[in-house]
User: Fold this.
Amino acid sequence: MRSEKARAIVLNSRPLGEADRILRLFTRELGRVDAVVKGVRKTTSRWGGRLEPYNVCDLVLYQGRTLYTVTQAHLVDVFLRLRDDREALTAAAVVCEAVAGLTPEHEPEERVFALLRNTLRELDTGLNGPALEAPLVLGALLKLLFEAGYMPVLDHCTACGGGERALGFSAARGGLVCEKCLEDAVPITPAAIEALREALGRPLAELRAAAPTAAVAEALRDVHDLYSYHTGSQLRAVRFARAAG
Amino acid sequence: MYSPAVERLITELAKLPGIGPRTAQRLTFHMLKLRPDEILPLAAAITEVKEKIGFCSRCFNLAEGELCTVCADMRRDPRLLCVVEQPFDIVTIERTREFRGLYHVLGGALSPLDGVEPDDLHIAELLSRVDGDVEEVILATNPTMTGEATAMYVADMLPRRVRVTRLASGLPVGGDLEYADELTLGRALVGRRSLRRGEE
Assistant:
Protein backbone atom coordinates (compact mmCIF):
# COMPACT_ATOMS: atom_id res chain seq x y z
CA MET A 1 0.00 0.00 0.00
CA ARG A 2 1.51 3.32 -1.02
CA SER A 3 0.70 6.78 -2.26
CA GLU A 4 1.35 7.97 -5.80
CA LYS A 5 1.41 11.47 -7.21
CA ALA A 6 -0.13 11.91 -10.64
CA ARG A 7 -1.42 14.59 -12.97
CA ALA A 8 -4.86 13.45 -14.05
CA ILE A 9 -7.71 14.35 -16.36
CA VAL A 10 -11.10 13.28 -15.01
CA LEU A 11 -12.73 11.28 -17.81
CA ASN A 12 -15.95 10.38 -16.04
CA SER A 13 -17.39 9.94 -12.57
CA ARG A 14 -20.25 7.94 -11.15
CA PRO A 15 -21.89 8.00 -7.71
CA LEU A 16 -20.84 5.46 -5.12
CA GLY A 17 -22.78 4.88 -1.91
CA GLU A 18 -24.12 7.83 0.09
CA ALA A 19 -21.78 10.65 -0.87
CA ASP A 20 -18.76 9.19 -2.68
CA ARG A 21 -17.85 8.93 -6.33
CA ILE A 22 -15.69 6.67 -8.44
CA LEU A 23 -13.61 8.67 -10.89
CA ARG A 24 -12.28 7.34 -14.14
CA LEU A 25 -8.96 9.13 -14.54
CA PHE A 26 -6.45 9.36 -17.31
CA THR A 27 -3.16 10.12 -15.61
CA ARG A 28 0.16 11.07 -17.12
CA GLU A 29 2.13 8.85 -14.74
CA LEU A 30 -0.14 5.81 -14.22
CA GLY A 31 -2.27 5.68 -17.36
CA ARG A 32 -5.99 5.05 -16.99
CA VAL A 33 -7.04 4.24 -13.44
CA ASP A 34 -10.20 4.32 -11.34
CA ALA A 35 -10.16 6.09 -7.98
CA VAL A 36 -12.64 6.60 -5.16
CA VAL A 37 -13.16 10.07 -3.76
CA LYS A 38 -14.87 10.16 -0.39
CA GLY A 39 -17.67 12.58 0.48
CA VAL A 40 -17.38 14.56 -2.76
CA ARG A 41 -21.15 14.80 -3.27
CA LYS A 42 -21.73 16.68 0.00
CA THR A 43 -22.05 20.44 -0.44
CA THR A 44 -19.62 20.87 2.45
CA SER A 45 -17.06 18.62 0.80
CA ARG A 46 -13.49 19.91 0.80
CA TRP A 47 -13.16 18.68 -2.79
CA GLY A 48 -15.76 21.11 -4.16
CA GLY A 49 -15.70 21.19 -7.94
CA ARG A 50 -12.06 20.15 -8.29
CA LEU A 51 -12.84 16.60 -9.34
CA GLU A 52 -15.55 17.27 -11.90
CA PRO A 53 -15.21 15.61 -15.33
CA TYR A 54 -12.72 17.22 -17.75
CA ASN A 55 -10.77 19.02 -15.01
CA VAL A 56 -7.00 18.57 -14.91
CA CYS A 57 -5.70 18.00 -11.38
CA ASP A 58 -2.57 17.07 -9.54
CA LEU A 59 -3.61 14.21 -7.29
CA VAL A 60 -2.21 12.15 -4.48
CA LEU A 61 -3.64 8.66 -4.84
CA TYR A 62 -3.53 6.05 -2.13
CA GLN A 63 -3.31 2.60 -3.65
CA GLY A 64 -5.83 0.19 -2.16
CA ARG A 65 -6.36 -3.47 -2.99
CA THR A 66 -8.61 -2.86 -5.99
CA LEU A 67 -8.96 0.90 -6.39
CA TYR A 68 -7.04 4.06 -5.67
CA THR A 69 -8.43 6.60 -3.21
CA VAL A 70 -7.92 10.31 -3.82
CA THR A 71 -6.34 11.85 -0.72
CA GLN A 72 -5.26 15.25 -2.12
CA ALA A 73 -6.28 17.27 -5.18
CA HIS A 74 -4.93 20.48 -6.63
CA LEU A 75 -6.67 22.00 -9.64
CA VAL A 76 -4.35 22.64 -12.59
CA ASP A 77 -6.77 23.40 -15.46
CA VAL A 78 -10.48 24.07 -15.28
CA PHE A 79 -12.40 24.61 -18.50
CA LEU A 80 -15.09 27.00 -17.31
CA ARG A 81 -16.44 28.01 -20.73
CA LEU A 82 -16.70 24.36 -21.74
CA ARG A 83 -19.33 23.89 -19.05
CA ASP A 84 -21.50 26.57 -20.61
CA ASP A 85 -21.43 25.25 -24.18
CA ARG A 86 -23.64 22.21 -24.79
CA GLU A 87 -21.97 21.15 -28.04
CA ALA A 88 -18.47 21.57 -26.60
CA LEU A 89 -19.50 19.48 -23.56
CA THR A 90 -20.79 16.73 -25.85
CA ALA A 91 -17.58 16.89 -27.89
CA ALA A 92 -15.52 16.58 -24.70
CA ALA A 93 -17.60 13.56 -23.71
CA VAL A 94 -16.95 11.92 -27.10
CA VAL A 95 -13.19 12.42 -26.84
CA CYS A 96 -12.94 11.40 -23.16
CA GLU A 97 -14.98 8.25 -23.77
CA ALA A 98 -12.77 7.39 -26.73
CA VAL A 99 -9.65 7.81 -24.56
CA ALA A 100 -11.18 5.49 -21.94
CA GLY A 101 -12.02 2.95 -24.64
CA LEU A 102 -8.70 3.04 -26.47
CA THR A 103 -6.27 3.01 -23.55
CA PRO A 104 -5.56 -0.03 -21.36
CA GLU A 105 -5.45 0.38 -17.58
CA HIS A 106 -2.15 1.23 -15.86
CA GLU A 107 -0.26 2.02 -19.08
CA PRO A 108 1.01 5.60 -19.17
CA GLU A 109 0.60 7.29 -22.58
CA GLU A 110 2.10 10.74 -22.31
CA ARG A 111 1.23 11.70 -25.91
CA VAL A 112 -2.42 10.73 -25.41
CA PHE A 113 -2.48 12.74 -22.18
CA ALA A 114 -1.16 15.82 -24.02
CA LEU A 115 -3.57 15.27 -26.92
CA LEU A 116 -6.57 15.03 -24.61
CA ARG A 117 -5.54 18.08 -22.60
CA ASN A 118 -4.97 20.13 -25.76
CA THR A 119 -8.32 19.02 -27.17
CA LEU A 120 -10.13 20.12 -23.99
CA ARG A 121 -8.28 23.46 -24.10
CA GLU A 122 -9.44 24.01 -27.67
CA LEU A 123 -13.00 22.97 -26.84
CA ASP A 124 -12.96 25.49 -24.01
CA THR A 125 -12.80 28.25 -26.61
CA GLY A 126 -16.16 27.06 -27.95
CA LEU A 127 -17.48 25.12 -30.93
CA ASN A 128 -19.14 26.92 -33.81
CA GLY A 129 -21.57 24.13 -34.67
CA PRO A 130 -22.78 20.64 -33.73
CA ALA A 131 -20.23 18.38 -32.03
CA LEU A 132 -20.59 15.65 -34.66
CA GLU A 133 -19.77 18.07 -37.48
CA ALA A 134 -16.74 19.61 -35.78
CA PRO A 135 -13.36 19.11 -37.49
CA LEU A 136 -11.75 19.33 -34.02
CA VAL A 137 -13.65 16.24 -32.81
CA LEU A 138 -12.81 14.34 -36.00
CA GLY A 139 -9.15 15.32 -35.67
CA ALA A 140 -8.95 14.35 -32.00
CA LEU A 141 -10.53 10.94 -32.68
CA LEU A 142 -8.23 10.24 -35.63
CA LYS A 143 -5.14 11.26 -33.66
CA LEU A 144 -6.26 9.03 -30.77
CA LEU A 145 -6.74 6.09 -33.16
CA PHE A 146 -3.26 6.82 -34.52
CA GLU A 147 -1.77 6.71 -31.00
CA ALA A 148 -3.61 3.45 -30.31
CA GLY A 149 -2.20 1.90 -33.48
CA TYR A 150 -5.49 1.90 -35.42
CA MET A 151 -4.64 4.62 -37.90
CA PRO A 152 -6.89 4.27 -40.99
CA VAL A 153 -5.21 4.01 -44.39
CA LEU A 154 -6.06 7.21 -46.26
CA ASP A 155 -3.57 7.45 -49.13
CA HIS A 156 -4.21 4.22 -51.07
CA CYS A 157 -6.61 1.27 -51.18
CA THR A 158 -6.15 -0.65 -47.96
CA ALA A 159 -7.15 -3.94 -49.67
CA CYS A 160 -5.13 -4.01 -52.90
CA GLY A 161 -2.65 -1.24 -52.21
CA GLY A 162 -3.56 0.47 -55.50
CA GLY A 163 -3.65 4.20 -55.87
CA GLU A 164 -6.97 4.37 -57.73
CA ARG A 165 -9.72 6.72 -56.63
CA ALA A 166 -11.18 5.60 -53.28
CA LEU A 167 -14.92 5.01 -53.29
CA GLY A 168 -15.52 3.34 -49.93
CA PHE A 169 -14.41 3.13 -46.31
CA SER A 170 -14.04 -0.24 -44.63
CA ALA A 171 -13.67 -0.37 -40.85
CA ALA A 172 -12.83 -4.09 -40.98
CA ARG A 173 -10.02 -3.54 -43.49
CA GLY A 174 -8.87 -0.34 -41.82
CA GLY A 175 -9.35 2.49 -44.28
CA LEU A 176 -10.21 3.58 -47.81
CA VAL A 177 -10.90 1.05 -50.55
CA CYS A 178 -11.07 1.40 -54.32
CA GLU A 179 -13.96 0.47 -56.62
CA LYS A 180 -12.67 -3.09 -57.21
CA CYS A 181 -12.33 -3.82 -53.47
CA LEU A 182 -15.59 -2.31 -52.17
CA GLU A 183 -17.17 -5.51 -50.69
CA ASP A 184 -18.29 -4.58 -47.11
CA ALA A 185 -17.23 -0.94 -47.39
CA VAL A 186 -19.63 1.99 -46.97
CA PRO A 187 -19.58 4.58 -49.78
CA ILE A 188 -17.53 7.69 -49.06
CA THR A 189 -17.61 11.06 -50.80
CA PRO A 190 -14.44 12.88 -51.97
CA ALA A 191 -15.30 15.69 -49.52
CA ALA A 192 -15.31 13.24 -46.58
CA ILE A 193 -11.94 11.80 -47.69
CA GLU A 194 -10.56 15.33 -47.77
CA ALA A 195 -12.02 15.99 -44.30
CA LEU A 196 -10.27 12.87 -42.96
CA ARG A 197 -6.92 13.88 -44.43
CA GLU A 198 -7.24 17.45 -43.19
CA ALA A 199 -8.25 16.32 -39.72
CA LEU A 200 -5.21 14.10 -39.44
CA GLY A 201 -2.73 16.54 -40.90
CA ARG A 202 -3.72 19.84 -39.30
CA PRO A 203 -3.07 20.91 -35.70
CA LEU A 204 -5.97 21.01 -33.23
CA ALA A 205 -6.01 24.82 -33.04
CA GLU A 206 -6.56 25.08 -36.82
CA LEU A 207 -9.24 22.38 -36.72
CA ARG A 208 -11.06 24.24 -33.96
CA ALA A 209 -11.28 27.32 -36.16
CA ALA A 210 -12.45 25.34 -39.23
CA ALA A 211 -16.14 25.39 -40.12
CA PRO A 212 -18.36 22.39 -39.35
CA THR A 213 -19.54 20.58 -42.48
CA ALA A 214 -21.65 17.62 -43.59
CA ALA A 215 -18.45 16.05 -44.97
CA VAL A 216 -16.93 16.09 -41.47
CA ALA A 217 -20.08 14.43 -40.11
CA GLU A 218 -19.78 11.71 -42.77
CA ALA A 219 -16.08 11.20 -42.02
CA LEU A 220 -16.83 11.07 -38.30
CA ARG A 221 -19.37 8.28 -38.88
CA ASP A 222 -16.65 6.24 -40.62
CA VAL A 223 -14.12 6.94 -37.87
CA HIS A 224 -16.70 5.93 -35.27
CA ASP A 225 -17.23 2.65 -37.18
CA LEU A 226 -13.48 2.11 -37.06
CA TYR A 227 -13.43 2.78 -33.30
CA SER A 228 -16.34 0.35 -32.79
CA TYR A 229 -14.64 -2.31 -34.89
CA HIS A 230 -11.48 -2.20 -32.79
CA THR A 231 -13.00 -1.75 -29.33
CA GLY A 232 -16.17 -3.80 -29.79
CA SER A 233 -18.35 -0.98 -28.45
CA GLN A 234 -19.94 2.19 -29.72
CA LEU A 235 -19.38 5.59 -28.14
CA ARG A 236 -22.41 6.38 -25.97
CA ALA A 237 -21.63 10.08 -26.29
CA VAL A 238 -22.00 9.85 -30.07
CA ARG A 239 -25.42 8.21 -29.67
CA PHE A 240 -26.29 10.93 -27.17
CA ALA A 241 -25.24 13.67 -29.58
CA ARG A 242 -27.42 12.17 -32.33
CA ALA A 243 -30.41 11.87 -29.96
CA ALA A 244 -30.00 15.34 -28.45
CA GLY A 245 -29.17 17.07 -31.71
CA MET B 1 -24.78 -22.49 5.88
CA TYR B 2 -27.99 -20.77 7.06
CA SER B 3 -31.59 -21.91 6.65
CA PRO B 4 -33.13 -20.89 3.29
CA ALA B 5 -35.31 -18.17 4.92
CA VAL B 6 -32.31 -16.51 6.59
CA GLU B 7 -30.26 -16.85 3.43
CA ARG B 8 -33.06 -15.22 1.42
CA LEU B 9 -33.29 -12.24 3.79
CA ILE B 10 -29.51 -11.72 3.66
CA THR B 11 -29.61 -11.83 -0.15
CA GLU B 12 -32.49 -9.34 -0.35
CA LEU B 13 -30.91 -6.90 2.12
CA ALA B 14 -27.60 -7.06 0.28
CA LYS B 15 -29.37 -5.76 -2.86
CA LEU B 16 -30.01 -2.41 -1.13
CA PRO B 17 -27.63 0.48 -1.88
CA GLY B 18 -24.74 0.82 0.53
CA ILE B 19 -25.33 -2.61 2.11
CA GLY B 20 -22.79 -5.33 1.48
CA PRO B 21 -23.02 -9.01 2.41
CA ARG B 22 -21.53 -8.53 5.90
CA THR B 23 -23.88 -5.67 6.80
CA ALA B 24 -26.81 -7.68 5.40
CA GLN B 25 -25.82 -10.57 7.62
CA ARG B 26 -25.55 -8.31 10.67
CA LEU B 27 -28.96 -6.72 9.97
CA THR B 28 -30.53 -10.15 9.51
CA PHE B 29 -29.26 -11.36 12.88
CA HIS B 30 -30.38 -8.14 14.50
CA MET B 31 -33.88 -8.68 13.07
CA LEU B 32 -33.93 -12.26 14.29
CA LYS B 33 -33.23 -11.03 17.80
CA LEU B 34 -36.11 -8.52 17.81
CA ARG B 35 -39.62 -9.33 19.02
CA PRO B 36 -42.28 -9.62 16.26
CA ASP B 37 -43.94 -6.33 17.33
CA GLU B 38 -40.59 -4.56 16.93
CA ILE B 39 -39.75 -5.79 13.43
CA LEU B 40 -43.06 -6.57 11.69
CA PRO B 41 -43.98 -2.84 11.37
CA LEU B 42 -40.91 -2.53 9.11
CA ALA B 43 -42.23 -5.28 6.83
CA ALA B 44 -45.68 -3.65 6.86
CA ALA B 45 -44.22 -0.21 6.07
CA ILE B 46 -42.30 -1.60 3.09
CA THR B 47 -45.44 -3.32 1.79
CA GLU B 48 -47.53 -0.19 2.32
CA VAL B 49 -45.10 2.14 0.60
CA LYS B 50 -44.88 -0.13 -2.43
CA GLU B 51 -48.66 -0.49 -2.63
CA LYS B 52 -49.64 3.12 -2.05
CA ILE B 53 -46.83 5.29 -3.41
CA GLY B 54 -46.44 6.02 -7.07
CA PHE B 55 -45.44 9.04 -9.12
CA CYS B 56 -47.47 12.23 -9.49
CA SER B 57 -48.98 12.25 -12.97
CA ARG B 58 -48.14 15.95 -13.36
CA CYS B 59 -44.69 16.52 -11.82
CA PHE B 60 -43.33 12.97 -11.20
CA ASN B 61 -42.81 13.63 -7.49
CA LEU B 62 -43.67 10.75 -5.15
CA ALA B 63 -47.44 10.70 -4.63
CA GLU B 64 -49.99 8.71 -2.69
CA GLY B 65 -52.69 9.32 -5.29
CA GLU B 66 -52.98 10.82 -8.76
CA LEU B 67 -51.28 14.08 -7.67
CA CYS B 68 -48.55 14.76 -5.12
CA THR B 69 -49.17 17.03 -2.12
CA VAL B 70 -47.46 19.97 -3.85
CA CYS B 71 -49.47 19.77 -7.10
CA ALA B 72 -52.70 19.25 -5.13
CA ASP B 73 -52.06 22.36 -2.98
CA MET B 74 -54.08 25.20 -4.52
CA ARG B 75 -52.07 27.83 -2.60
CA ARG B 76 -48.90 27.11 -4.62
CA ASP B 77 -47.96 29.64 -7.30
CA PRO B 78 -48.46 28.00 -10.75
CA ARG B 79 -46.41 30.76 -12.45
CA LEU B 80 -43.18 29.39 -10.94
CA LEU B 81 -41.85 25.98 -11.89
CA CYS B 82 -38.74 24.50 -10.30
CA VAL B 83 -37.07 21.68 -12.24
CA VAL B 84 -35.14 19.11 -10.19
CA GLU B 85 -33.40 15.83 -10.94
CA GLN B 86 -34.93 13.59 -8.25
CA PRO B 87 -37.95 13.62 -5.88
CA PHE B 88 -35.69 13.98 -2.83
CA ASP B 89 -34.41 17.29 -4.24
CA ILE B 90 -37.95 18.65 -3.68
CA VAL B 91 -37.70 17.85 0.03
CA THR B 92 -34.38 19.71 0.21
CA ILE B 93 -35.81 22.82 -1.48
CA GLU B 94 -39.01 22.68 0.57
CA ARG B 95 -36.91 22.80 3.76
CA THR B 96 -35.69 26.28 2.78
CA ARG B 97 -39.33 27.61 2.91
CA GLU B 98 -38.26 30.09 0.20
CA PHE B 99 -40.11 28.57 -2.74
CA ARG B 100 -43.90 28.57 -3.14
CA GLY B 101 -44.19 27.45 -6.77
CA LEU B 102 -44.58 24.01 -8.33
CA TYR B 103 -41.99 21.38 -9.23
CA HIS B 104 -41.10 19.11 -12.08
CA VAL B 105 -38.92 16.02 -11.53
CA LEU B 106 -36.82 15.02 -14.53
CA GLY B 107 -35.87 11.62 -13.12
CA GLY B 108 -32.12 12.10 -13.60
CA ALA B 109 -29.67 14.15 -15.62
CA LEU B 110 -28.51 13.99 -19.21
CA SER B 111 -25.15 12.31 -19.46
CA PRO B 112 -23.32 11.94 -22.75
CA LEU B 113 -20.78 9.74 -20.96
CA ASP B 114 -23.38 7.35 -19.54
CA GLY B 115 -25.73 7.46 -22.51
CA VAL B 116 -28.65 9.10 -20.65
CA GLU B 117 -30.55 10.79 -23.48
CA PRO B 118 -33.40 13.35 -23.48
CA ASP B 119 -35.98 10.60 -24.08
CA ASP B 120 -34.88 8.88 -20.86
CA LEU B 121 -36.00 11.89 -18.79
CA HIS B 122 -39.35 13.67 -18.28
CA ILE B 123 -38.33 16.56 -20.54
CA ALA B 124 -41.18 16.22 -23.06
CA GLU B 125 -43.67 16.31 -20.15
CA LEU B 126 -41.99 19.46 -18.84
CA LEU B 127 -42.29 21.19 -22.21
CA SER B 128 -45.98 20.33 -22.42
CA ARG B 129 -46.49 21.73 -18.89
CA VAL B 130 -44.91 25.08 -19.72
CA ASP B 131 -48.01 26.57 -21.24
CA GLY B 132 -50.12 29.65 -20.39
CA ASP B 133 -49.60 29.93 -16.61
CA VAL B 134 -45.86 29.38 -16.24
CA GLU B 135 -43.80 32.59 -16.28
CA GLU B 136 -40.49 31.38 -14.85
CA VAL B 137 -38.72 28.04 -14.89
CA ILE B 138 -35.98 27.62 -12.27
CA LEU B 139 -33.47 24.97 -13.26
CA ALA B 140 -32.34 23.38 -9.99
CA THR B 141 -30.36 20.47 -11.38
CA ASN B 142 -27.16 19.57 -9.53
CA PRO B 143 -24.13 21.84 -10.08
CA THR B 144 -22.26 18.91 -11.67
CA MET B 145 -21.22 18.45 -15.27
CA THR B 146 -24.32 16.33 -16.00
CA GLY B 147 -26.59 18.75 -14.13
CA GLU B 148 -25.18 21.70 -16.09
CA ALA B 149 -25.59 19.84 -19.39
CA THR B 150 -29.21 19.07 -18.50
CA ALA B 151 -29.92 22.68 -17.53
CA MET B 152 -28.46 23.95 -20.81
CA TYR B 153 -30.44 21.46 -22.86
CA VAL B 154 -33.74 22.23 -21.08
CA ALA B 155 -33.10 25.99 -21.35
CA ASP B 156 -32.62 25.62 -25.13
CA MET B 157 -35.87 23.67 -25.45
CA LEU B 158 -38.09 26.01 -23.41
CA PRO B 159 -40.13 28.68 -25.25
CA ARG B 160 -38.52 32.13 -25.42
CA ARG B 161 -41.43 33.87 -23.66
CA VAL B 162 -40.65 32.01 -20.40
CA ARG B 163 -37.99 33.37 -18.05
CA VAL B 164 -35.39 30.66 -17.43
CA THR B 165 -33.17 30.92 -14.35
CA ARG B 166 -30.54 28.70 -12.74
CA LEU B 167 -29.76 28.30 -9.05
CA ALA B 168 -26.80 30.50 -8.12
CA SER B 169 -23.41 28.88 -7.52
CA GLY B 170 -21.29 30.16 -4.70
CA LEU B 171 -19.75 29.68 -1.32
CA PRO B 172 -21.47 27.65 1.40
CA VAL B 173 -22.74 29.78 4.29
CA GLY B 174 -20.47 29.47 7.31
CA GLY B 175 -17.43 28.33 5.31
CA ASP B 176 -14.01 29.96 5.07
CA LEU B 177 -12.86 31.46 1.75
CA GLU B 178 -9.50 29.78 2.33
CA TYR B 179 -11.02 26.34 1.76
CA ALA B 180 -13.09 27.19 -1.33
CA ASP B 181 -12.15 25.36 -4.51
CA GLU B 182 -11.24 27.37 -7.60
CA LEU B 183 -14.31 26.36 -9.60
CA THR B 184 -16.81 27.35 -6.91
CA LEU B 185 -14.95 30.56 -6.11
CA GLY B 186 -14.71 31.42 -9.83
CA ARG B 187 -18.46 30.99 -10.18
CA ALA B 188 -19.09 33.02 -7.03
CA LEU B 189 -17.06 35.86 -8.54
CA VAL B 190 -18.86 35.67 -11.90
CA GLY B 191 -22.24 35.63 -10.13
CA ARG B 192 -21.40 38.36 -7.58
CA ARG B 193 -24.19 40.81 -6.77
CA SER B 194 -24.39 44.39 -5.67
CA LEU B 195 -25.15 45.17 -2.05
CA ARG B 196 -26.78 48.47 -3.00
CA ARG B 197 -30.49 48.33 -3.62
CA GLY B 198 -31.61 48.99 -7.17
CA GLU B 199 -28.32 47.95 -8.73
CA GLU B 200 -28.08 44.65 -10.61
